[in-house]
Structure prediction request, 367 residues.
Amino acid sequence: NFEHSSSTSPATSTTMTSHGGLTSTLNTFQILVGALVCYSVYYAYWQLTIGAHRRRLIKEHGCKPIKNTTELNSWKDVLFGWTQIVANNKSRKQRTMLDDSRRRFLRNGNTFHFKVVHVDLVFTVEPQNLKAMLATQFKDWNLPDRRKDAFEPLLGAGIFTTDGPAWQHSRDLLRPNFVRNQVADLATFETHVNHLINAIPRDDSTVDLSELFFRLTMDSATEFLFGESTNCLAPGASSERANEFANAFNRSQDAVGVASRNLPILAKFLGSSIGKDIEHVHQFVDHFVNRGLEWQKKQETEKSVSKSGETYVFLHQLVKDIQDPIRIRSELLNILLAGRDTTASLLTNLWFVLARRPDIWTKLRVE
Prediction:
């Protein structure tokens, strides 16, 4: 029988090849039909749910069609937003993100739309839109998964990575920070400002004030949050360890920023490349968290009562409400990011303007 099969193998082979090709064609056709059916079902479901909800909102608020950005001028841009991805990376490397974003709004108007890797993005600087998102309709908005995926490995759960009740709880923990007597406690900054002044060279050489301002705000923010300053601007071995922490924090911020602005999956890949920096940041903060928990145990054992003249320390308030060290660390890192970067950026921009506006500088000196 084996020999017989061999003798008729050419014909058999031809027949089998023909059936194989037909089967392959049918499989491809079935896959295409299946994909089309799945897409049609998904599209119908989307139109009946999300689409219907959006149409109601459009009718209710009288929304006008959103304007597409002028950069959507090729199939690569329509499908992937390729031009925008390249432009954003160039802006980041050249540190011109704010200027380039401003020019984009001047070209396209206060609100416009485009896609990046098939994700619909709406950019707006329209005051009424911002008012709705941040105030009057705040509860109707939530953080995108892209931001959570990018930020959570470094910051954990806090005001930058949560929504709803979790966000509200973090916000309530922050409320005491904005009491007038805390904001007006300028004596706390005296030591750090002196360190800043001493760090400025006296030989007329050029100095990057931005770097010094970020170290200044790291020192002041950590004293306020942890009860002990990193003293990055102070000379000595302890400042070297603090600067290692600050540098690791900076690199981690840069990486999660890239992840949040670009492909969502990039956040996952960057997690491994910045793992050591994140671990270093967490270990540094955990030291203060453990000391804060020990302080709270001592307070409970000795039944101590806080005195009115004591310096406010955010960590001491946290450990009264939270005992989980990971949650405490997360809340601290979220506030460190908020309190440090905003102030340092403001100071940097202030001196940038003063250096170019002698009229304002003269007026301040007179005052």
Strands lie at 111-116, 119-124. Residues 4 and 131 are 85 Å apart (CA to CA). The two ends are 110 Å apart (CA to CA).
